[in-house]
Automatic annotation (TrEMBL):
Organismal lineage: Bacteria, Bacillati, Bacillota, Clostridia, Halanaerobiales
Originating species: Halobacteroides halobius (strain ATCC 35273 / DSM 5150 / MD-1)
Function in brief: Catalyzes two reactions in de novo purine nucleotide biosynthesis. Catalyzes the breakdown of 5-aminoimidazole- (N-succinylocarboxamide) ribotide (SAICAR or 2-[5-amino-1-(5-phospho-beta-D-ribosyl)imidazole-4-carboxamido]succinate) to 5-aminoimidazole-4-carboxamide ribotide (AICAR or 5-amino-1-(5-phospho-beta-D-ribosyl)imidazole-4-carboxamide) and fumarate, and of adenylosuccinate (ADS or N(6)-(1,2-dicarboxyethyl)-AMP) to adenosine monophosphate (AMP) and fumarate.
Keyword Ribosomal protein attributed: no
Cellular component, GO annotation: cytosol
Entry protein name: Adenylosuccinate lyase
Keyword terms, alphabetized: Amino-acid biosynthesis, Lyase, Purine biosynthesis
GO molecular function, one term: (S)-2-(5-amino-1-(5-phospho-D-ribosyl)imidazole-4-carboxamido) succinate lyase (fumarate-forming) activity
PANTHER family, per database record: ADENYLOSUCCINATE LYASE
Domain Adenylosuccinate lyase C-terminal span(s) in chain numbering: 372-453
One GO term (biological process): amino acid biosynthetic process
The keyword Disulfide bond belongs to this UniProt entry's keyword annotation: no
InterPro entries (UniProt xref): AdenyloSucc_lyase_C (IPR019468), Fumarase/histidase_N (IPR024083), Fumarate_lyase_CS (IPR020557), Fumarate_lyase_fam (IPR000362), Fumarate_lyase_N (IPR022761), L-Aspartase-like (IPR008948), PurB_C (IPR013539)
């Protein structure tokens, strides 16, 4: 790895947002060093497949294997200053390390993007398996635990920022268990679809067909060394949609955690105060208002999403390549690793904060109590209708106005109004209890929470402790 003072880096991902994470893991797949190493690995797979077919000797493959292990980004970049072509620079560097006999087989019949696209698919696939999925599953597990812990904690459901009808806090979290679960599956599936190619300069196997009657089978051999499949059809590049879909699902996942963060942020408003971020003893909320405890972590995640979500537009633009290719996707696609690190550093932040999430049950009760008597307007009107009242919604709407004016509860008003009394008398015990205890009007929040957690823990193979 290039050792240098990270504070001299321009990009805040390096000097600020991945500092507390396992930066080493990110760089294994996503650094420039990794990119060069993976490209060298593809060059090696090519020579290995040539050796298997007897086009070159096993000794050549052994030499290339040794050379590839020694390749550094520094030497490739130094060579690129001469060649002004990055893949030719890599090829030259490998050739410098092998015998005259081996030199001709490096990059044999291939074009640069046989190497570049295949290497990217390989590293993004491995990054998904080793880094992205484990990190996302850690957050998923944490959300599952919070959902179960809070499955019976009654909270007022809010639509349009207004009190609607009750749910439980666990049920609200289960929404994110499910949405995150879906995107985890999508990321996994789309990463498995990432493909390689060894199809030459325009994708028609022109060069490899000089040596192989079935060049597609040679392509399959090379890619099998890397556990990859071939793009269905290639030009000079792999069909872009595999990577488009992969980054789309990463971006969609980012949207899910940004929405979650937004919800958590709003629940920390002074007037709501239902959750809180853990505050260290020495932590400062505001540089001028010492009492403040700001939701800085959830704000950060939304801010990061604002930076990285629009980058999907660039990925969509990279779908366009003239005829058999142009180079306008080259520089832009080099930034995809930043999207991944942006997402992962946000996920890691949510894990750190979620582990110490403070849930203020008293405030949840207090907030619920504010409109406790009014939230039964829905079940009241539906019950009246179910017992035959022809204009139940309008009657209850007017009752809510009267209740607000007089401070009376809805159920009291129903019981006292001559025209409504007969309906009240038909309500059964369970129905009356609901109207008397609005906190029981939570539908199947508890069961649904359990069901969601169970199904995602099975689907994603996440074992829950306790
Ligand atoms: O196999 C080939 O190379 C075929 C060739 N197409 C190219 N394919 C891949 N890379 C190429 C190509 N052309 C240039 N380069 C080199 O790509 C580098 C682009 O640098 P940057 O814009 O920073 O992403 C930068 O190093 C460029 O020199 C063609 O003519 O079709």
């Amino acid at each position: 790895m290039i050792k240098r003072n990270i504070f001299k880096n321009i990009g805040p991902l390096d000097h600020r947002y991945s500092l507390r994470d396992e930066f080493k893991d990110y760089s294994t797949y996503l650094s420039e060093e990794a990119k060069v190493k993976y490209q060298a690995t593809v060059e090696l797979a090519l020579v290995k497949a040539l050796a298997k077919r007897g086009i070159c000797s096993q000794e050549v493959a052994t030499q290339v294997e040794k050379a590839v292990k020694e390749i550094t980004p520094e030497e490739v970049y130094k060579e690129e200053r001469k060649t002004k072509h990055n893949i030719r620079a890599l090829v030259n560097c490998i050739q410098h390390k092998v015998s005259e006999e081996a030199k001709p087989y490096i990059h044999f019949t291939t074009t640069s993007f046989d190497i570049v696209d295949t290497a990217n698919s390989l590293r993004y696939k491995e990054a998904t398996e080793e880094l992205i999925l484990p990190t996302l599953k850690e957050l998923e597990k944490l959300l599952m635990e919070i959902a179960l812990r809070e499955k019976e904690t009654v909270q007022v459901g809010r639509t349009h920022g207004q009190h609607a009808v009750p749910i439980t806090f666990g049920f609200a979290i289960a929404e994110y268990v499910s949405r995150l679960g879906n995107t985890i599956q999508d990321i996994e599936e789309s990463s498995k679809q990432l493909k390689g190619k060894i199809a030459g300069a325009v994708g028609a196997y022109n060069a490899s067909h000089l040596f192989f009657d079935q060049p597609e089978s040679f392509e399959a051999d090379v890619l099998a060394e890397l556990d990859l499949e071939a793009s269905t059809h290639s030009t000079q590049i792999v069909e872009p949609e595999y990577i488009t879909n992969f980054v789309h699902y990463l971006t969609s996942c980012f949207g899910v955690i940004a929405n979650f963060s937004d919800d958590m942020r709003h629940l920390q408003r002074s007037e709501i105060g239902e959750v809180g971020e853990y505050f260290d003893e020495d932590q400062v909320g505001s540089s001028t208002m010492p009492h403040k405890r700001n939701p800085i972590n959830y704000e950060n995640v939304k801010s990061m999403w604002k930076e990285f979500m629009p980058r999907m537009m660039t990925v969509y633009q990279d779908q366009i390549s003239e005829h058999q290719r142009d180079l306008t996707n080259s520089a832009s696609s080099r930034f995809i690793p930043e999207i991944i690190v942006g997402l992962l550093s946000s996920v890691n932040r949510l894990i750190r904060v979620g582990e110490k999430l403070v849930v203020d049950h008293d405030n949840m009760k207090k907030n619920f109590a504010q409109n406790k008597e009014l939230v039964v307007a829905e079940p009241l009107y539906i019950l009246l209708a179910s017992y035959g009242h022809p204009d139940a919604h309008e009657v209850v709407r007017k009752l809510t106005l009267e209740a607000e004016e007089t401070g009376q509860t809805l159920r009291k008003l129903v019981q006292t109004k001559e025209e409504l009394k007969p309906y009240w008398e038909q309500f059964n015990q369970k129905q009356r209890e609901l109207l008397v205890n609005p906190e029981k009007y939570i539908g199947i929040s508890v069961d649904k929470t359990e069901k969601i957690v169970k199904s995602w823990s099975n689907k994603l193979d996440i074992e829950l402790t306790g």
